[in-house]
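Case study B.
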Amino acid sequence: MLAKVSMKPPYYAVIFTSVRTEGDRGYEEMATTIKKLVEQQPGFLGMDSARSHVGITVCYWDSLQAIERWKKNEQHRVAQALGRRDWYAQYRVRICKVEAEYGWP
Amino acid sequence: MLAKVSMKPPYYAVIFTSVRTEGDRGYEEMATTIKKLVEQQPGFLGMDSARSHVGITVCYWDSLQAIERWKKNEQHRVAQALGRRDWYAQYRVRICKVEAEYGWP
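Model:
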């Protein structure tokens, strides 16, 4: 199922692309924790996530302020540090303004 | 490997999220064709793609004009029509302005 974003553009999207290291190293447990946590954040609108050779997670937000607040969240900061130490060989974060949206059906 | 986007923000991203139908139905062949074609388009900067329960493809572009031109490309229009008929149960397209970017390492 795709994310159901109730807000109409303009709103914001954070595109997180990554390449994982080998092995789990506690990743799945933290991923579950962080997913639950992000869904509770003010301004969070939804999330789409997929992984093949690379992983892509897109989170939708109602404002840049909500994105900034989540970036500074204490548990999230711990996950970010572990991400750099253990889970990711490489990642990129892109902060985007969603200007238009359409879909099918 | 993640996309290497040489341009600094602001630039544009198109987030294409989808749920596939069952079976291939000619999808992989068209996906290969369209991937080669999009890489040749003026203004194309790179692409990240992954699929689990949902598929996410993010294409990066230097302008809204380049995105509009690609949307109207004849071969791409054929693929869009076949996508709605055969390959996708559901999709969303989001046109985004990338306002900031950072990464690691």
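The mean pLDDT of chain B is 97. The remaining cases will be described in the next quarterly update.
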